[in-house]
Design goal:
9 helices, Glutaredoxin, 4-stranded mixed beta sheet, binds glutathione, alpha+beta
């Protein structure tokens, strides 16, 4: 059985979505934000969620890697284009783009004090982080032109990952007008049964 360490309104959102879409039972442990607990640091040295404990006891951090592994282990759920499919390239590309570029920009915004040794620099770090989010969303918006989904013609975890990042944008109200293709995808996914249910517990956007 999988065990997921998570917290509302975090990267645990997309992993919970993956497990729910795959219909896989899992134990959920909510990790309070704050002071590190040594047992948790043993599996997550940066004190971050999500962490997935695999049925063999191995632990995994890194949301994109966890998504890719779950898609591989539960191919019947169609969480990602198959490894042999041409659309796999887009799936992998955008998963890594979102986790390495946009998620990192979110961390620079929400934990700006970690990214400067000058307390007066915090606002500048935040502003630069938002610019990086905007630049990256423009790239994804262009990729979505004429397409419903990021990878191929079916919903994949890449789309759910994107919606999670959209919800974290500090100026989320501008998304539908600034990036209409992303806005369209977000509007579609907000109506998805699993995403609606998860939003009720994660409270990522107003229902
Ligand atoms: N690279 C990691 C980032 C995970 C991450 O930053 N998680 C945030 C919540 S969304 C967290 O736990 N932050 C607490 C902290 O950094 O102290 C991933 O993709 O899973």
């Amino acid at each position: 059985m999988y065990k997921l360490y998570t917290r509302a309104n975090t990267g645990g959102f997309v992993i919970e979505a993956a497990l729910a879409l795959a219909g896989v039972p899992f134990d959920q442990i909510d990790v309070p934000k704050g002071r590190p607990d040594q047992a948790f640091l043993d599996i997550s040295p940066l004190n971050q969620v999500p962490v997935l404990i695999l049925p063999d006891g191995r632990s995994m951090t890194e949301s994109a890697a966890i998504c890719i592994l779950l898609a591989e282990r539960h191919p019947e759920a169609g969480l990602a284009p198959a490894a042999s499919s041409a659309d796999r390239a887009d799936f992998l590309r955008w998963m890594f783009f979102m986790s390495s570029v946009i998620y990192s920009a979110d961390l620079r915004f929400f934990y700006a004090h970690r990214y400067t040794t000058d307390p007066r620099g915090v606002d500048a770090v935040k502003r630069a982080a938002v610019s990086e989010m905007d630049r990256s969303f423009a790239i994804l918006d262009a990729a979505l032109a004429g397409h419903d989904w990021l990878a191929g013609d079916q919903l994949s975890l890449a789309d759910i990952y994107l919606v999670m990042l959209v919800a974290w944008h500090p100026e989320v109200a501008k998304v539908p007008t600034a990036w209409p293709n992303i806005g369209r995808l977000w509007a579609n996914l907000r109506e998805h049964r699993v995403i609606k249910r998860l939003n009720a517990s994660h409270d990522m956007w107003p229902a």
